[in-house]
Design goal:
This protein has a seven-stranded mixed β-sheet with strand order 2-3-1-4-7-6-5, covered by helices on one side. A seven-stranded mixed β-sheet has the order 10-9-8-11-12-14-13. It is of the alpha/beta class. The two termini are 24 Å apart. 28% of the residues lie in helices and 24% in strands. The chain is built from eight helices and 14 strands. The protein has two domains: 165 residues, 2-Layer Sandwich (VC0802-like); 165 residues, 3-Layer(aba) Sandwich (Rossmann fold), CATH 3.40.50.150. It binds S-adenosylmethionine. S-adenosylmethionine binds next to α5 and β9.
């Protein structure tokens, strides 16, 4: 499985500056996508569809266009504008010329994002140099320094294959993974970038009849509804609070999708009702118990086999890896392959794609 690669943090040497910048109407800036480890390939593919993004190296790229386009990316957790300085240590950023350049760089990001405060993230952020940098930036940018909640997140770190330091400034006050549609959250709610990746890898097809059993706060429903047309889509959950929560999120996203308070294992629906079944199963910690899951998982696979069309796809996300893989080994009705393993919030769930044998 793909793991967090250091390449996403590789420096962007000035010698790599694309040729012909002078011909562009807007100056190109260097950017870096922050992505949950494991979802890099999905984010790279999404990035390649951005017109004008160029010199793409992993999750780094140059882009001369309106940054607003970058804030519509759905796989990354955040987008940072990046610039490097040939200084041996952060103190060098306080030099007259470097500080003027740094201020101009950050002001460009602030003009776009409208952040109302800033914070610094760096090794040794308690040091006297960092404290001085924070004071000077506060005065120069006329922006409050809020070390814990600052909206403009500024990361400082050494270049990995260069002598200098680079500064990364997050384009948006909140991470992109904090979706505007999320007006309701539940314990065990799925990170929206993971839901996006599951749909991308499951395939987005107009003709799909989609079922989202165990829909919780509706993350998989909303993310799919935002991806484009489908033939039909329905979510079910046993918990009435979760159903209300999913409905609120769908309403905020202005998407009309049916969610019902029904047991996913006893829907009473006819066989082969769906072409895509996609589910984030209870992981046995925030939701459900390991004991319950031992019975739930095999029953789930049996019922989903009945509900799925002959050529259909079943996509499952779980953190109960040993249980799920044992249940897979003990049955003969499904082919399964791993789509990704992602690291998020102390968990490392896997997504699987199953098809009928
Ligand atoms: C891991 S959570 C889903 C979280 C969801 N992906 C989200 O983003 O909020 C699992 C959900 O399965 C539901 N659930 C458990 N057993 C169920 C069953 N037999 N039928 C329907 N829902 C069930 C729980 O109520 C819970 O909301």
């Amino acid at each position: 499985m793909p793991r967090a690669s250091h390449s996403k943090y590789a420096p962007f040497p000035r010698s790599k500056r694309p040729q012909g910048d002078h011909r562009a109407r807007q100056p190109a800036h260097a950017y870096l996508l922050e992505v949950l480890p494991g979802l890099e390939p999905v984010a790279e593919e999404e990035l390649r569809a951005v017109p004008l993004a160029r010199d793409i190296r992993g999750l780094r790229f140059w882009y001369p266009g309106d940054p607003e386009r970058l804030t519509r990316l759905r796989a990354p957790v955040a987008v940072f504008r990046v610039r490097a300085w040939d200084v041996p240590r952060p103190r060098g950023l306080l030099g007259h010329q470097q500080f003027a350049e740094l201020t101009a760089f950050l002001a460009g990001v602030l003009r776009f994002g409208g952040h109302r405060s800033f914070r610094l993230a760096a090794a040794g952020r308690e040091s006297s140099v960092m404290a001085r940098l924070a004071d000077e930036l506060q005065a120069a940018l006329q922006l409050p320094h809020d070390p814990e909640e600052g909206e403009l997140l500024i990361r400082l770190r050494p270049q990995e294959d260069g002598p200098g330091w680079e500064v990364l400034a997050r384009l948006t006050p909140r991470p992109l993974s904090a979706r505007a549609w999320r007006v309701c959250n539940m314990g065990g709610g799925l990170n929206a970038t993971i839901a996006y990746a599951m749909h991308r890898l499951a395939g987005v097809r107009e003709e799909d009849r989609i079922f989202n059993p165990m829909s919780g706060s509706g993350t998989l429903l909303v993310e799919r509804a935002l991806l484009g047309p489908y033939a039909a889509m329905v979510g079910v959950d046993l918990n009435p609070e979760a159903v209300a929560c999913a409905r609120a999120n769908l309403h905020a996203a202005r998407r009309d999708v049916e969610v019902a308070c029904v047991d996913a294992l006893h829907t009473g629906l006819p066989p082969r009702s769906f072409d895509l079944i996609i589910s984030d199963l209870p992981w046995g910690d925030a939701v459900g118990t390991h004991g319950d899951n031992a019975a739930l998982y095999p029953a789930f696979l049996t019922e989903m086999h009945r509900l799925l069309s002959r050529q259909g796809r079943l996509v499952v996300l779980t953190h109960e890896l040993r249980l799920f893989e044992r249940v897979l080994r003990e049955q003969e009705r499904w082919y399964a392959r791993e789509l990704f393993q992602v690291y998020s919030g102390g968990h490392h769930p896997k997504a699987y794609l199953l098809s009928k044998r």
